[in-house]
Write a structure and sequence with these properties.
The protein has one domain: Four Helix Bundle (Hemerythrin (Met), subunit A) (Up-down Bundle). By secondary structure, the chain is mostly helical. It is elongated. The protein has four helices and no strands. 21% of the residues are buried. The mean pLDDT is 88.
Protein backbone atom coordinates (compact mmCIF):
# COMPACT_ATOMS: atom_id res chain seq x y z
CA UNK A 1 0.00 0.00 0.00
CA UNK A 2 2.91 2.36 0.73
CA UNK A 3 4.19 2.04 -2.84
CA UNK A 4 0.77 2.86 -4.26
CA UNK A 5 0.52 5.93 -2.02
CA UNK A 6 3.95 7.15 -3.12
CA UNK A 7 3.08 6.44 -6.76
CA UNK A 8 -0.16 8.44 -6.51
CA UNK A 9 1.77 11.23 -4.76
CA UNK A 10 4.31 11.42 -7.59
CA UNK A 11 1.57 11.30 -10.24
CA UNK A 12 -0.31 14.13 -8.51
CA UNK A 13 2.87 16.23 -8.35
CA UNK A 14 3.42 15.55 -12.05
CA UNK A 15 -0.15 16.52 -12.90
CA UNK A 16 0.08 19.73 -10.88
CA UNK A 17 3.47 20.74 -12.27
CA UNK A 18 2.52 19.81 -15.84
CA UNK A 19 -0.77 21.70 -15.66
CA UNK A 20 0.95 24.76 -14.22
CA UNK A 21 3.63 24.75 -16.92
CA UNK A 22 0.86 24.33 -19.49
CA UNK A 23 -0.89 27.33 -17.95
CA UNK A 24 2.30 29.36 -18.38
CA UNK A 25 2.49 28.35 -22.03
CA UNK A 26 -1.23 28.96 -22.56
CA UNK A 27 -0.88 32.53 -21.29
CA UNK A 28 1.41 33.20 -24.25
CA UNK A 29 -0.54 31.36 -26.93
CA UNK A 30 -4.29 31.27 -26.24
CA UNK A 31 -5.20 34.85 -26.94
CA UNK A 32 -2.61 35.59 -29.57
CA UNK A 33 -4.98 35.61 -32.56
CA UNK A 34 -8.15 36.96 -30.97
CA UNK A 35 -9.05 40.35 -32.43
CA UNK A 36 -9.98 42.08 -29.16
CA UNK A 37 -9.51 41.87 -25.39
CA UNK A 38 -13.02 40.54 -24.78
CA UNK A 39 -12.48 37.51 -27.04
CA UNK A 40 -8.98 36.94 -25.64
CA UNK A 41 -10.42 36.94 -22.12
CA UNK A 42 -13.04 34.38 -23.19
CA UNK A 43 -10.32 32.05 -24.43
CA UNK A 44 -8.33 32.43 -21.23
CA UNK A 45 -11.44 31.94 -19.10
CA UNK A 46 -12.28 28.66 -20.83
CA UNK A 47 -8.78 27.33 -20.14
CA UNK A 48 -8.71 28.64 -16.56
CA UNK A 49 -12.07 26.98 -15.86
CA UNK A 50 -10.40 23.63 -16.53
CA UNK A 51 -7.07 24.46 -14.88
CA UNK A 52 -8.45 25.66 -11.54
CA UNK A 53 -10.20 22.47 -10.36
CA UNK A 54 -7.43 20.27 -11.80
CA UNK A 55 -4.66 22.09 -9.96
CA UNK A 56 -6.55 22.34 -6.66
CA UNK A 57 -7.52 18.65 -6.82
CA UNK A 58 -3.92 17.66 -7.56
CA UNK A 59 -2.73 19.73 -4.59
CA UNK A 60 -5.29 18.02 -2.36
CA UNK A 61 -4.10 14.59 -3.48
CA UNK A 62 -0.48 15.66 -2.90
CA UNK A 63 -1.20 16.75 0.67
CA UNK A 64 -3.22 13.64 1.54
CA UNK A 65 -0.84 11.10 0.00
CA UNK A 66 2.13 12.90 1.52
CA UNK A 67 0.57 12.64 4.96
CA UNK A 68 -0.40 9.01 4.42
CA UNK A 69 3.04 8.02 3.17
CA UNK A 70 4.93 9.50 6.12
CA UNK A 71 2.66 8.17 8.88
CA UNK A 72 4.12 4.62 8.88
CA UNK A 73 7.62 6.11 9.29
CA UNK A 74 6.48 8.08 12.31
CA UNK A 75 5.11 4.89 13.80
CA UNK A 76 8.15 2.81 12.93
CA UNK A 77 10.79 5.27 14.09
CA UNK A 78 8.98 6.53 17.17
CA UNK A 79 10.96 9.20 19.00
CA UNK A 80 13.91 8.81 16.57
CA UNK A 81 11.70 10.11 13.72
CA UNK A 82 12.49 13.77 14.36
CA UNK A 83 16.23 13.31 14.62
CA UNK A 84 16.46 11.06 11.55
CA UNK A 85 14.15 12.70 9.00
CA UNK A 86 11.99 15.22 10.85
CA UNK A 87 14.16 18.29 10.20
CA UNK A 88 14.61 17.57 6.49
CA UNK A 89 10.92 16.83 6.17
CA UNK A 90 10.06 20.08 7.95
CA UNK A 91 11.97 22.01 5.27
CA UNK A 92 10.11 20.16 2.52
CA UNK A 93 6.76 20.74 4.21
CA UNK A 94 7.47 24.44 4.63
CA UNK A 95 8.26 24.71 0.92
CA UNK A 96 5.23 22.60 0.02
CA UNK A 97 2.93 24.94 1.91
CA UNK A 98 4.51 27.94 0.18
CA UNK A 99 3.76 26.17 -3.13
CA UNK A 100 0.18 25.58 -2.00
CA UNK A 101 -0.25 29.23 -1.05
CA UNK A 102 1.23 30.35 -4.38
CA UNK A 103 -0.90 27.88 -6.35
CA UNK A 104 -4.01 28.98 -4.50
CA UNK A 105 -3.19 32.59 -5.35
CA UNK A 106 -2.87 31.61 -9.03
CA UNK A 107 -6.14 29.66 -9.09
CA UNK A 108 -8.40 31.67 -6.81
CA UNK A 109 -6.70 35.02 -6.59
CA UNK A 110 -5.99 35.51 -10.27
CA UNK A 111 -7.54 32.95 -12.64
CA UNK A 112 -10.88 32.76 -10.87
CA UNK A 113 -11.23 36.54 -11.00
CA UNK A 114 -10.84 36.51 -14.76
CA UNK A 115 -13.35 33.66 -15.13
CA UNK A 116 -15.89 35.53 -12.98
CA UNK A 117 -15.37 38.72 -14.99
CA UNK A 118 -15.92 36.77 -18.18
CA UNK A 119 -19.05 35.08 -16.81
CA UNK A 120 -20.40 38.52 -15.88
CA UNK A 121 -19.46 39.86 -19.33
CA UNK A 122 -17.68 42.78 -17.66
CA UNK A 123 -15.93 45.18 -20.02
CA UNK A 124 -12.18 44.73 -20.47
CA UNK A 125 -9.52 46.76 -22.25
CA UNK A 126 -6.27 45.59 -23.81
CA UNK A 127 -4.30 47.41 -21.10
CA UNK A 128 -6.29 45.77 -18.29
CA UNK A 129 -5.85 42.32 -19.80
CA UNK A 130 -2.10 42.88 -20.33
CA UNK A 131 -1.66 43.90 -16.66
CA UNK A 132 -3.69 40.93 -15.55
CA UNK A 133 -1.66 38.52 -17.67
CA UNK A 134 1.60 40.02 -16.42
CA UNK A 135 0.56 39.31 -12.82
CA UNK A 136 -0.47 35.82 -13.82
CA UNK A 137 2.83 35.14 -15.65
CA UNK A 138 4.84 36.14 -12.59
CA UNK A 139 2.67 34.05 -10.27
CA UNK A 140 2.68 30.98 -12.52
CA UNK A 141 6.44 30.87 -13.12
CA UNK A 142 7.12 31.61 -9.45
CA UNK A 143 4.88 28.65 -8.56
CA UNK A 144 6.68 26.43 -11.07
CA UNK A 145 10.09 27.47 -9.68
CA UNK A 146 8.94 26.86 -6.10
CA UNK A 147 7.57 23.46 -7.06
CA UNK A 148 10.79 22.43 -8.79
CA UNK A 149 12.84 23.66 -5.82
CA UNK A 150 10.59 21.69 -3.46
CA UNK A 151 11.11 18.58 -5.57
CA UNK A 152 14.85 19.14 -5.49
CA UNK A 153 14.78 19.42 -1.67
CA UNK A 154 12.58 16.32 -1.46
CA UNK A 155 15.03 14.24 -3.49
CA UNK A 156 17.74 15.04 -0.97
CA UNK A 157 15.80 13.65 1.98
CA UNK A 158 17.28 10.36 3.06
CA UNK A 159 14.60 8.10 4.47
CA UNK A 160 16.18 5.26 6.44
CA UNK A 161 14.94 1.73 5.98
CA UNK A 162 12.52 1.17 8.79
CA UNK A 163 10.62 -2.01 9.50
CA UNK A 164 7.11 -0.70 9.12
CA UNK A 165 4.29 -1.93 11.32
CA UNK A 166 1.97 -4.42 9.70
CA UNK A 167 -1.16 -2.94 8.11
CA UNK A 168 -4.17 -2.98 10.37
Amino acid sequence: MERLTVFVHVVAVSVFLGATVMLGVAIETLGARAPDAFLRRQRYAAFFSAYNPLSIAALGVIVMTGAWSITPYKQGLGPAYFEQIGAALADKLMLAFVVIISATWVSFGICHRLVRADQGALPVTDAQLRRFLLRLRVAVWMTVALTVFTLWVATGIHVPHVPLPPPQ
